[in-house]
Structures are given as structure tokens and as C-alpha cells.
Specification:
The chain has a single domain (about 30-160), classed as Sandwich (Immunoglobulin-like). With about 170 residues, it is mainly beta. It has helices spanning about 10-25, 50-55, and strands at about 35-45, 65-70, 75-85, 90-100, 105-115, 120-130, 140-150, 155-160.
Length: about 170
């Protein structure tokens, strides 16, 4: 029984409860260090990579993009242009793991690209080139991209709508 004239302060109790809930779960859920802003999958011809500077020095100029190809000597292929924001420290070596399902097989194929990962914003151009892609008219059924440290810690991931079966 409450003393006469005593009222419960429900807004304050709600605030204390929410704060306890947040602090209690802070160790359980950790924000991803790498956030994918957007992923654009599409076919690119070799000519689309050529810049005017290449006509003078013969060297490919990727600008501020990190271009990673399954066959580095071949430019034409299916690319995943991924804009990411990395809130953690820079890594001199990290892995970008691209897993996809193609129309010719329900079994997932995985491609791993080694790269440095700087802090801040980065644009990756992940290319499946040469024998790794069937042609200009072929599109993936589903895909997933993960950024992982060399010791296997997941920093961030993005996936297509069809990558996993939705919860019922």
C-alpha cells in the first residue's frame, strides 16, 4: 500500500527502464564498422574504364575507386560498385568476399579480393571478369558482399533481396 498522496512517476520509470535496457544490451549488439551505402551491380565494357590519362601513359587510372577484378588483366565483366563508409581504423589488409548465385547453378560461388581498407568513405568496384562471368546479358540471381578482417572478423555486409528466405 502506498502512503497517502504518493503518485508513481510513470514517465520517469519508463525512462529508467529504457536506459537499463539499452545499457544491458550494449555489449550484445555492436554496430557494424563498415556500412554499405549502396551497391550497384551491372555489366561494364573494358572501354568504360578508359580515361584520357591512359592514352598518354598507358596506365589504368581508377581515380578514387578501388578496382578489384577476378582476372586483373581483363576489364570487361560484371561489376558490383559498392559505396561503403568505414567508421573504424584503417586496415593495411582486409578481405572483400563476394558470394553469388548465378542462373546456371543454384550452388553459391565465392570470390575473395584482398585490399587495404581506409577509414572513411571508399568506393569498391568488384569485377567478375574473364571466365568468371558468362556474358553481358547474364545477371546474378542473388548476391552477398562482406568486408572481413584477415583474421575473419566481419566488419560489414550487404546482400540482395533474394539472398535469404524471409522470415514467416
Amino acid at each position: 500500500m502506498r502512503p497517502p498522496g504518493h503518485r508513481l512517476n510513470f514517465p520517469l520509470m519508463r525512462l529508467v527502464f529504457m536506459l537499463a535496457l539499452l545499457l544491458g544490451s550494449a555489449g550484445l549488439a555492436r554496430a557494424a564498422e563498415v556500412e554499405f551505402v549502396r551497391v550497384w551491380p551491372k555489366w561494364r565494357d573494358a572501354e568504360s574504364f578508359k580515361r584520357i590519362s591512359e592514352y598518354f601513359d598507358g596506365q589504368e587510372n581508377t581515380g578514387s575507386q578501388v578496382v578489384l577484378r577476378s582476372h586483373p588483366e581483363i576489364r570487361s565483366g560484371f561489376y558490383f560498385l559498392a559505396r561503403v563508409t568505414h567508421s573504424g581504423p584503417a586496415f593495411s589488409a582486409a578481405k572483400v568476399v563476394l558470394t553469388l548465385i548465378t542462373p546456371d547453378s543454384p550452388k553459391a560461388k565465392t570470390y575473395t579480393f584482398m585490399t587495404a581498407l581506409s577509414a572513411g568513405d571508399t568506393v569498391f568496384n568488384l569485377g567478375l571478369t574473364g571466365a568468371d562471368w558468362a556474358g553481358e546479358t547474364v545477371h546474378p540471381v542473388a548476391w552477398k558482399i562482406e568486408v572481413v578482417t584477415t583474421d575473419g572478423r566481419l566488419l560489414g555486409a550487404a546482400k540482395s533481396f533474394l539472398w535469404e528466405k524471409p522470415d514467416k
